[in-house]
């Protein structure tokens, strides 16, 4: 699943082509929502919110897509051959000179900008780790509300912070040497705040442009493939633990392990030596009454 840095870079790639341009055509092939009213309107901006991409139009409508596991945005110049079948398109947005196509997105819909705050998919998102005004105190408060949840599950909850997916979850907890399977309450506010800070810096380090000015990339996969989460940004060894089950930890030599977590059984990669088991204190509660 594309994570926050990938969506940020997709928005940065689509923005220059779309922002300020008049809509020539807009189709949502898998939806019965009317799109015709947006032809002739202008694109105001393209914005990433966590793992969501939002395209704002000047009359107050927003195109929302969520790629989940299978989706991808491509950007083509007029007349350029598409790299995927049109039958798999979820959204097609044409402006003079360009066509932006979202393929295989489970979520592709229109809604009013005024409804974003109360929307069931977007309204409950936690602070965006790549947002310009990241509210660290609010993120910590939301994390603390999940004190009994394993840290590796809680940090993936988009209602806590928006933008962390499976890769960053594993890499972040390895970098901060935290046990993914201990409950949130096993950690101090200082440890959790430091973890969130490292997560923000990790994502920020992967949104810098890696292409020459004026170039664009059509495939979402390009942005994931150029991600590095190891200290020093070694492109030959871009990740520390993710996807490396059974291989030696670069830092200590122990075998990297993988366990599944949460109701969705998402994979968590970790080093048992660098991330030792954390014993949680007993839950706090009212003192027992005297007999």
TrEMBL record:
<feature type="domain" description="FPG-type">
    <location>
        <begin position="240"/>
        <end position="276"/>
    </location>
</feature>
<keyword id="KW-0238">DNA-binding</keyword>
<dbReference type="InterPro" id="IPR015887">
    <property type="entry name" value="DNA_glyclase_Znf_dom_DNA_BS"/>
</dbReference>
<dbReference type="Pfam" id="PF06831">
    <property type="entry name" value="H2TH"/>
</dbReference>
<keyword id="KW-0326">Glycosidase</keyword>
<dbReference type="InterPro" id="IPR012319">
    <property type="entry name" value="FPG_cat"/>
</dbReference>
<dbReference type="InterPro" id="IPR035937">
    <property type="entry name" value="FPG_N"/>
</dbReference>
<keyword id="KW-0479">Metal-binding</keyword>
<keyword id="KW-0234">DNA repair</keyword>
<dbReference type="InterPro" id="IPR044090">
    <property type="entry name" value="Nei2_N"/>
</dbReference>
<keyword id="KW-0863">Zinc-finger</keyword>
<dbReference type="InterPro" id="IPR010979">
    <property type="entry name" value="Ribosomal_uS13-like_H2TH"/>
</dbReference>
<dbReference type="InterPro" id="IPR015886">
    <property type="entry name" value="H2TH_FPG"/>
</dbReference>
<keyword id="KW-0511">Multifunctional enzyme</keyword>
<keyword id="KW-0862">Zinc</keyword>
<dbReference type="InterPro" id="IPR000214">
    <property type="entry name" value="Znf_DNA_glyclase/AP_lyase"/>
</dbReference>
<dbReference type="Pfam" id="PF01149">
    <property type="entry name" value="Fapy_DNA_glyco"/>
</dbReference>
<protein>
    <recommendedName>
        <fullName>DNA-(apurinic or apyrimidinic site) lyase</fullName>
        <ecNumber>4.2.99.18</ecNumber>
    </recommendedName>
</protein>
<comment type="similarity">
    <text>Belongs to the FPG family.</text>
</comment>
<keyword id="KW-0227">DNA damage</keyword>
<keyword id="KW-0456">Lyase</keyword>
<keyword id="KW-0378">Hydrolase</keyword>
<feature type="domain" description="Formamidopyrimidine-DNA glycosylase catalytic">
    <location>
        <begin position="2"/>
        <end position="91"/>
    </location>
</feature>
């Amino acid at each position: 699943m594309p994570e926050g840095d990938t969506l940020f870079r997709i928005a940065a790639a689509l923005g220059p082509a779309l922002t300020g341009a008049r809509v020539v055509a807009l189709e949502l092939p898998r939806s019965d929502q009317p799109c015709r009213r947006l032809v002739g309107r202008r694109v105001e901006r393209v914005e990433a919110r966590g793992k969501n991409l939002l395209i704002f139009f000047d009359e107050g409508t927003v195109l929302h897509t969520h790629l989940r596991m299978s989706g991808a945005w491509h950007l083509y110049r007029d007349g350029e051959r598409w790299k995927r079948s049109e039958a798999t398109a979820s959204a097609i947005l044409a402006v003079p000179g360009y066509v932006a196509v979202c393929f295989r997105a489970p979520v592709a819909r229109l809604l009013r900008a005024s409804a974003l705050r109360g929307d069931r998919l977007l309204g409950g998102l936690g602070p965006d780790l790549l947002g310009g005004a990241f509210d660290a105190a609010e993120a910590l408060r939301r994390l603390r509300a999940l004190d009994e949840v394993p840290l590796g599950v809680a940090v993936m909850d988009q209602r806590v912070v928006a933008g962390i997916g499976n890769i960053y979850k594993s890499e972040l907890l390895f970098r901060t040497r935290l046990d993914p399977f201990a409950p949130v309450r096993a950690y101090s506010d200082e440890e959790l705040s430091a973890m969130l800070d490292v997560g923000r810096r990790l994502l920020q380090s992967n949104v810098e442009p890696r292409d020459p000015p004026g170039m664009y990339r059509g495939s979402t996969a390009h942005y994931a493939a150029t991600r590095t989460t190891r200290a020093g940004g070694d492109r030959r060894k871009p990740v520390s633990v993710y996807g490396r089950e059974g291989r030696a930890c670069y830092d200590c030599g122990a075998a990297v392990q993988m366990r599944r977590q949460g109701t969705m059984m998402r994979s968590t990669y970790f080093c048992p030596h660098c991330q030792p088991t954390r014993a949680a204190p007993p839950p706090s509660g009212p003192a027992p009454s005297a007999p």
